[in-house]
Amino acid sequence: MSRPDDWLRPELRGLQAYQVAEADGLIKLDAMENPFDLPAEVAGQWGEALSGLPVNRYPDAAAREVKQALRQAMGIPASASLMLGNGSDEILQILMLAVAAPDACLVTPAPGFAMFGLIARTVGLRCVSVPLADDFSLDADAMVSAIEREQPALVIVAQPNNPTGNAFDAAALRRVVEAAPGAMVIDEAYFPFADDDCLAWLDDYPQLLIMRTVSKLGLAGLRLGLLAGAPAWIEALEPLRLPYNVNSLTQAAAALALAHYPAFQAQAEAIRRERPRLASALAGLDGVEVFPSQANFLLMRVPPGRAPAWHAALREQGVLIKNLHGSHPRVADCLRATVGTPAEIDALIRALEVVTAADR
Ligand code: PMP
Question: Cα of 222 to ligand 1 centre, how many Å?
Answer without folding.
Answer: 13
